[in-house]
Amino acid sequence: MVALGLRKILRDFTLEVSLRIERSEFVVIQGPSGSGKTTLLRIIAGLEKAEGAIEMEGERWLDEDGSLPPQKRSIGFVFQNYALFPTMSVLQNLLFVQNDKSFALHLLRLVDMLDLKERYPHELSGGQKQRVALARAYMRRPKVMLLDEPLSALDPAIRTHLQSKIKELHEEFGTTTFMVSHDVAESYRLADRIVLLERGRVREILDKEALLSHKTHHVGEVVDIKDGKAYVAFMGQIFRIPATKDMEVGQMVPLQIGEIRAL
Amino acid sequence: MIDWTPFTLSFKLAFVTTLILLLIGIPVAWWLANTRSRLKPFIEALVSMPLVLPPTVIGFYVLWLLAPESMIGSLLEKIGIEVVFAFPGLVIGSILYSFPFMVQPLQSGFESVDRSIIEASYVAGKSQLETLLRVVLPAIKPSLLSAIIITFAHTIGEFGVVLMVGGSIPGKTQVASIAIYEYVEALDYEHAHIYSLIMLAISFAVLLSVYWLNRRFKRVAQW
Fold first, then answer.
1. Tally of CA atoms within 13 A in the half-sphere of A99 that contains its CB
2. Is the Cβ of B207 closer than 8 Å to some Cβ of chain A?
3. Chain B window 114-173: which residues touch A at a Cβ cutoff of 8 Å?
4. Which terminus of chain A has fewer CB atoms gathered within 10 Å of its CB, N or C?
5. Preferred mutation among B123, B132, B145 to probe A, highest tally of A CBs within 10 A
6. Which residues in chain B are closer than 8 Å to A96, comparing Cβ atoms?
7. Which of these CATH numbers, 3.30.365.10, 3.40.50.1000, 3.40.50.300, 3.30.420.40, describes A2-212?
8. pLDDT of A26-50, one tens digit each?
C-alpha cells in the first residue's frame, strides 16, 4: 500500500494532497494545467522537496526525519520529453539502469523495439522514443511507476498504441502506477481510479465502481465559455453544456450525459 | 639549427596545466551550473578575473605568495620543492591564468544539458558522480573538447605570467613565447622570424582543429 500526505507551498497556491493507494493500482491524476500534477509526481519521486510523509509498502520515503533521495526510492519515471540518454543506443539506455541483458531484451520485445535496439535516440520517432523510455523505466523492477504525461506530445494513433503498451506492462508487472494525463479517454482506458486535482487540492477521487456505474460523473475540460454555454472537451471531442457561474476555462467539470450536446 | 627546447617546454607546460585544470575545472563548472547559492556571482567573477587582469598582476601575486621568503614558499622550500623561477611555478601561474578558459565552456556546456536526462539518471539509481561521468560529460563532448584545446592553446601563447614567475632560464623556464622576445631583444630577427612562424602555424592548426571538430560534432549530435 502507498500512503502519502504532502504539503508544499507553490507560487500561486499550496499543494496539499493525501492519498491511499492499493498495491498494483493504476491511478490517473487529472486536472487543469498548473494544478500541481507534475509537482506531485516529482515529490513522490524525490526530485522535489515537500513537507509530509510518504510510506511505500512499509518503507518510509519521506517523514519529519528526512527524505530518501531519488536514487534510493524504488521508482520508474517516464518524462514527457522522453529524456533518453543521447549518447547511448536503445539497448545501452536500458543497460545503464541495470546490467541485465536478458531482462532488457524482454522489455524491448514487449514494447516492440527489439529490432531497433542498436539505434540512437536521434534516429527514433517520438513514439519510438517513448516506448524505449517506458521500457527503461521498468528496468529497475520498481515498486512505483510514475508517468508524467508520457503521451501528450504524440499524435492520436500512436497514443492509442502506446496506451495498450502501458496497459500490457502494468498487467505483466503489477507495478503501482501514477500517471498524469490530460486526456479523458486515456484516463478512462487505463485508470483504476482517477484523482482530480485542482489548485493543489484533491477535488474528487473517482474509483472503479464509480467509473463503471451509470451514475458516474464523466469529466470534461472547459475550453471556452460563450453566451451562457460552456464548450467542453470530452472523449476526444468538443461538446456544449449549459454554463454555470463559477466555471472557468481550463477547469475540469463533471458532465451529465443527458445534458451534453454535440456541436 | 633550431633549438626546439623552448617549444617542448611550452608543450610540456600546456599539457600539465590542461590536465590539472581539467580535474579542477570540471567540479567547479558543475557546481556553478547547478548551484542556486548566493555566492555564485562572486565565484563567477573570481573565475573570470584572469580575462581582464594584466598577466603581470597575476604573475606578481604568484611571485609574492610563493617566494622563498613567503609563508607558502618557505614551506615548499623545506620539503624541497622549488617554485619560483622553476617549472612548478610556471604551472601554478598558468593554472590561474587559464582558469576561465577551462571553466567557462564547461559551465555553458553543463547548463545546456537537458535537466531531465540528469533526473532520469538519478531515478535510475545513479549517484551524482556517476551521472556526471557517464551521462553528462559524454553529452557535452564538443564543449569538453573546446575547453581542453583552448586552454592548451592559451597556455602555449602565454607570456606575461611566465616571464614574471619563471624568468627566462633557457632549458628550465624559457618557453617559446619568451624565447622569441629574447631574440628580438638581441636583434636576432632571423630566429625571431622562424620561432614566430612556427608559433603561428601551431596556433592556426589548433584553432582549425577546434572548429573542424565542432562542425563534426554538430553534424553527429543533431538530436
1. 1
2. no
3. 114, 116-117, 119-127, 134-135, 138-139, 141
4. C
5. B123
6. 121, 124, 126, 134-135
7. 3.40.50.300
8. 999 988 878 899 999 999 999 999 9
Cβ atoms A67, A59 nearer than 8 A: no
* Residue in B114, B125, B221 nearest the CB of A140: B125
Which 3 state secondary structure label does DSSP give B52? helix
Q: Is the pLDDT of residue A186 over 60?
A: yes
Domains of chain B: 5-220 (1.10.3720.10)
Average confidence (pLDDT) over A77-82 = 93
What pLDDT, on the 0 to 100 scale, is given for residue A213?
Answer: 59
> What angle do the packed helices B55-66 and B71-78 form, to 10 degrees?
60
CA distances from B141 to A91, B113, B133, B222 (A): 21, 11, 11, 13
Give A45's contacts in chain B (Cβ within 8 Å).
Answer: 123
Cell output for A101: 541483458
What residues of A are in contact with residue B120 (Cβ under 8 Å)? Answer: 77, 79, 83-85, 136
ipTM value: 0.81
A–B CB contacts, 8 A cutoff, strictly below: 62
